[in-house]
Design brief:
Blueprint (H helix, E strand, L loop, with lengths): L1 H35 L9 E2 L27 E4 L4 E3 L8 E6 L4 H16 L5 E7 L3 H10 L5 E5 L3 H5 L4 E2 L1 E5 L5 E6 L4 H10 L5
């Protein structure tokens, strides 16, 4: 009887230790995220642990000094299961927004992006690329917040890694010739979005 009780006690201790380790890991992850995105910043960024070859500094970043590089082609699935290629929009200015459901700044800027997508529907292409999450979670999030954009899925982080996206939200602005004219890391506000869109030929 004493031996059985001893085995039970050891088992309970092991379970408690495993649970404690899991809680510590989750608390550290939450702390790291909250440390990077606070409500009192004018532009906010949530960090994403993606390995990149040439990381960019977090903040408001322009790539005007990058000699207007061409954006690499990619193909991703939309929520209807259709394969969408960047080349489908050749000849039109494109805004590419990388986001995730766990990113508060992403949700904060999404209605603004949606407003401009509707305003310039005939001229501007807006691609909202969710990174690293499964379709069901993305659908639930979109329905919950009543969002209506051209959403694409990047569950393996392939497109995000290709463009060195390691902070959310990150938004790329390319002109009708496929040249990347601006990259913004962090939450967009209306004056910033207007400025970036003017760079790629979208204006009143």
């Amino acid at each position: 009887m004493n031996r059985n009780q001893w085995l039970i006690d050891i088992g309970l201790i092991v379970v408690i230790i495993v649970m404690a380790v899991f809680v510590i890991i989750e608390l550290n992850r939450t702390y790291d995220f909250m440390r990077q995105s606070s409500d009192d910043k004018p532009t906010q960024t949530a960090l994403l642990p993606i390995q990149v070859d040439a990381p960019m500094a977090v903040g408001n970043v322009s790539v005007d000094d990058f000699n207007h590089p061409q954006i690499e082609p990619f193909q991703l699935l939309n929520l209807e299961g259709e394969r969408v290629a960047l080349s489908d929009y050749k000849g039109r200015p494109v805004l590419i927004n990388f986001w995730a459901t766990w990113c508060p700044p992403c949700l904060a800027e999404m209605p603004l992006i949606q407003t401009f997508a509707e305003k310039y529907a005939g001229d501007l292409v807006v691609l909202a690329i969710n990174v690293g999450e499964e379709e069901g979670l993305v659908r639930q999030y979109i329905d919950q917040h009543e969002l209506d954009l051209n959403f694409l899925l990047d569950p393996s982080n392939s497109a995000a890694a290709k463009f060195n996206v390691y902070g959310f939200p990150t938004t790329l602005f390319m002109d009708q010739d496929g040249e990347l004219l601006a990259r913004h890391i962090g939450e967009l506000n209306e004056p910033l979005l207007v400025m970036y869109l003017e760079k790629i030929g979208i204006q009143e």
